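Exercise 7. Given the components listed, write out the predicted structure of the assembled complex. Treat all entries as one system.
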Amino acid sequence: MEKRVTFSSWTIGILFAVPQLLLIFTFFYWPAGQAVYWSLTLQQPWGGGNIWVGLDNFRSILANADYWNSITASLVFAGISTGLAMFIALVLAALTDRQLAGSRLYRVVLIWPYGIAAPALALAFRFILAPEAGFLSVINRIWPGIWDPGLDGADAMASIIVAFSWKYVGYNFIFFLAAFQAIPRSLIEAAAMDGSGVIRRFWDIQFPLITPTIFFLLVINITESFQDSFGIVDIMTSGGPANATNLMVYKIYSDGFKGLDYSGAAAQSIILMLLIIVLTIFQFRFIERRVHYG
Amino acid sequence: MTMIKRGFAALAAGALSTALAMPAFAEPVKFDFWFGLSGDLARVVDTMCKNFNASQKDYEVVCTSQGNYDATLQNTIAAFRAGKQPTVVQVYDVGTATMMLSGAYKPADKLMEENGYKIDYADYFPGIARYYATSKGEMLSFPFNSSTPLMYWNKDAFAKIGKTEAPKTWEDVGADLKAMKDAGYECPMAINISANESWQLMEQFSALHNQPIATKNNGYDGLDARLEVNKTKFVQYVTDLKKWYDAGLIKIKSKDLGQDMVQAFASGTCQVILTSVGDHGTVGRTQKEGMNWDVAELPVYAGTERKNSLVGGASLWVLSGKSDAEYKGAAAFLNFIHDPKTALFWSTNTGYIPVTKSGFDYMKGQGFYDKAPYKGREVAIASLTASEPTEITRGIRLGNFTQIRAEFGTQMQAIFANKVSVQEGLDTLVKNGDAILDRFQQTYPGKTLP
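Answer.
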């Protein structure tokens, strides 16, 4: 007879999971639950009391034209900056992967932007894009008034998109380069021997093989463009001019912390969370079908 | 054995703590003061705190900058909800209504009375005291750093168009700006139209012209006050500003665009700006070599009986839930700040103005306003005391006013970008502002402003 110490796999499993579950509960579910509760009440900022108002907060937010404007601005921002950041990173990674002269240097340098904190990079871009004193002031000297992010909403939106994309190009670049380098050289060499050119090889071999990475980055970029845009907006435009760059996450901050409207901000966070969930489900449902996992 | 060891340790610890609790000299009572100033101003506050700590042995104030006014209020609220609030906190002017309804403070006048300090409340400039007092005139907080806006004008540029005095009416301003433009000045006047400029463009303008911003005497008489700036003289003012902007007489200058209006004025790029007396020192320190400039009261429209301008800045609130010893310390600290000598120290090192008549007289007596770098700052006092405060020039007592200011910036930007007409923009400002006020009122059901 063999003696064996047995543990109930159920208990031991739970025991191992408890620390992690506790962390998740404390730092995610509990605050999220609190936000849901706040969104259904009117909270006095100093904690003097609250009133249950049901879905009134959601109703008043969704009836507000400014809020819809904010959703539109967020979607425009997410769409363009994700497209831009991914496209540029893809091109740069493809070129670096081809071992062109200096590619070792690019590999290091192109990663840096992601390491810069959003407010710092926003400050840098504020100087670069300043219409009177920045690098772009040259354009204004040739065509006066053509670049005016202070009053022109489209210019301001372009500014924050450029700043955000610049940061995420670095992030995307790391993943794209890793994906390219994971492709067996033999495949590419074989295709080259069969006489296909660089572009052909890219479309027929490399691109299909990195679709899982593209999909991953798409989900991350869209999610981050909703959340990580805060620092850039805060420093560069403060949501202006005339709410043109008042993205959802910035509006949550300004309503909640500057306006002390905790309940309205909580309701907006719930809506933002739902929106990101819906977008992510959409991506997994419809775009992931086109992804080939090796 | 271990038990005995532990017993000894406990005994030793006990003896040590008794020894600590009864030192030869009593340890000073520590209390926290949170403020919202940063940079140079924060250093001045720190020095003031050190001076207070050195002036007596019973209390020690620990002063902590929270970076800016918004953050100070946010952090204080968070700390209060967690029961770790500071004893004294600096809250900006427009946070007054929120503070009054918070139920989280100890009335300043009561605090001073309980601790045996006699403060002559009539000594405060009425324009300053009324802003922070209840509608019945009780002081719930103490005015601290105070300022008011002035018109900064470039004497050299005005000399070019044959003027030796600052324009007193907006009609004259319009004519002078035109003349300066014709004389070749690229930027006769600079303004900015973000949330911050609600202060000089909307709030101060309305006070000087005795025009209401909101019903119910700007909110002093009830939470059901609603905005009405879309049907006062303010409409004409915005119309004129827009007209001058379109004619190239006014340029928009902001930090986001590379140069804010104070820099634009100090560098000689722009000839007129409207900003706080608090910038007087900055302009003096950073001005272009040899530039001649001065300050004047904000202009009014011809035929207006000028009223007092409003105070801007912040006041000191004492929060509830602290020990008697800490309150004693807070009272001593507030009394120290109230002293005319501290007022002189404070105004010399910052651009802020004294808040009491005795402080002002003391500074005048010391010859403060005769010397070059500070000369001109007395205009701010003249502006604040231009008249007895009327029912609507006492101040503004509206909930979530920060959000209303933000809405002001948004609508002004829409107007200046030609997205909407002046009237449409101001109508939207009132509509959205009223929604904010409505929400504030709903958050505090059954409560009234003290």
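Discussion: The longest strand of chain B covers residues 312-319. Chain B has 19 helices and eleven strands.
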